[in-house]
Specification:
Type-I_RS_S_subunit; four-stranded antiparallel sheet; 2 domains; 9 helices; about 25% strand; about 425 residues; five-stranded mixed sheet; alpha+beta; single chain; Adenine-n6-DNA-methyltransferase TaqI, Chain A, domain 2
Length: about 425
């Protein structure tokens, strides 16, 4: 085991755009578009038509590690693989780290310098800076100390951790595609009203009868109903748990509004509960596949449960389906653009962004039970797959986070 500085085994900020480079277009990666090794998107620029951002200067290659110099605790970092590097530029807000492959394994180094204790250390350095926001310098990155085992051990550990992350990313991609397909089908059937008619043809496009509805101020299919959400579901409020019950680790995770995010449910909770009061309603003991919606703040955020041993806190509602056969329909109905806009309009019209369950249930929607049932039958399998992938990812993340410090610090090894 060698104790080295990062500068001993890697080049920092070694490649930059020059006047000699001939590039017709640029794929630009800003710090905000990369988090925890996930690229949200690239920005595209045509060199002779558009002006590049002033920070679009760093060049990268296979296995370049990107490490944001601003607010390290926000985790804007990643390792680049299998891209067309000829057109990619990244922000000077990143340090680019190109590891010497003869001495060190890039994956091992990436996981070493992004583990929690290292992030906390770099954030501490950043907070001592004299800049207007917490930041580190390239020299701070160069001086990161690393305990380096021999190259074969590094490669085994790097591959093991990289394989876990690849599986997590694959599951995320599958879920993203399934969500897009389900949303597309929902919009096709319930917004454009091109659900299959009795002959299997798209209803509206094939001349299906449409009638004007005064309540919704739009045309809807003949014989479709206009109902409040209470016709198919109820919103059950969470419980107001006393803070005296909070513990840092325990049997039940306490899910609050901050855990229901735009991307779904985040199970990194602030508090746990061991001793549950006797008057907590049964519905607050959450189950896998339960659908939740926020009633305060960012009203209308939807998530589906993929973990057990969770309790429902106040201002988050459990969606209780009256007919379980319509679960998938209800999930995508509540996530639909039309429903989200209705909830935002209701929230913006009040002094406080709060909705009661009764208000949330009063929203009108257009509905045909048979079409909704058919939709659920088609989508149920996809939604189950999404939940299964989310649960698997949670287990993989827990495994990775448990093993990562043990492997990187030599407390555990990987057998052949």
């Amino acid at each position: 085991m060698w104790n080295l500085k990062l500068n001993d085994i890697a080049k920092i900020n070694s490649l930059s755009l020059s006047k000699k480079d001939i590039i017709s277009y640029v794929k630009y990666l800003d710090t905000s578009n990369l988090k925890s090794n996930i690229i949200e998107n690239f920005q595209y620029f045509e060199m002779f038509k558009e002006k590049l951002p002033s920070r679009a200067k760093r060049k990268v290659k296979q296995n370049t590690i990107l490490y944001s110099t601003v607010r390290p605790n926000q985790k804007h970092f990643g390792i680049l693989k299998n891209l067309d590097f000829s057109s990619i530029l990244v922000s000077t807000g990143f340090c680019t780290i190109d590891v010497d492959n003869d001495i060190a394994d890039p994956d091992f180094i990436y996981y070493y310098i992004t583990q929690d204790f290292m992030i906390k250390k770099m954030q501490s350095i950043a907070e001592q800076s004299t800049t207007s926001y917490p930041s580190i310098t390239p020299n701070d990155v160069k001086n990161i100390e690393i305990n380096l085992p021999n190259i074969e051990i590094q490669r085994k550990i790097g591959k093991f951790l990289s394989d876990i992350e690849s599986k997590i990313k694959t599951n995320c991609m599958i879920n993203d595609n399934l969500e897009k397909q389900a949303k597309l089908l929902y919009d096709y059937w319930f917004t454009q009203f091109d659900f299959p008619d009795e002959n299997g043809n798209p209803y509206k496009s094939s001349g299906g009868e449409m009638v004007w509805n005064k309540q919704l101020e739009c045309s809807i299919p003949e014989k479709w109903e206009i109902d409040p959400l209470s016709a198919i579901l109820n919103f059950k409020s969470g419980f107001s748990f006393c803070t005296d019950l909070y513990v840092k680790d325990g049997k039940y995770k306490l899910l609050t509004i901050k855990n229901i995010q735009d991307t779904g449910i985040n199970f990194q909770v602030d508090n746990y509960i061991n001793n549950v009061p006797h008057n907590v309603p049964d519905h607050c003991f959450l189950k896998v596949n339960d659908i939740l919606m926020t009633l305060t703040g960012n009203i209308g955020r939807i998530g589906i449960l993929y973990s057990s041993n969770c309790l429902l806190n106040q201002r988050v509602a459990l969606v209780k389906n009256i007919n379980e056969e319509l679960r998938s329909f209800v999930y995508y109905l509540l996530k639909s653009d039309i429903m989200q806009k209705k909830y935002q309009t209701m929230a913006n019209g009040s002094s406080q962004k709060n909705l009661s369950p009764i208000e949330a249930e009063s929203v009108l929607f257009t509905y045909c039970k048979q079409v909704a049932t058919n939709f659920s039958s088609l989508i149920d399998k996809s939604l189950k797959k999404i939940v299964s992938n989310l649960a698997e990812n949670q287990k993989l993340i827990s495994l990775r986070d448990y093993l990562l410090p043990l492997l990187l610090n030599g407390q555990s090894t990987i057998e052949d």
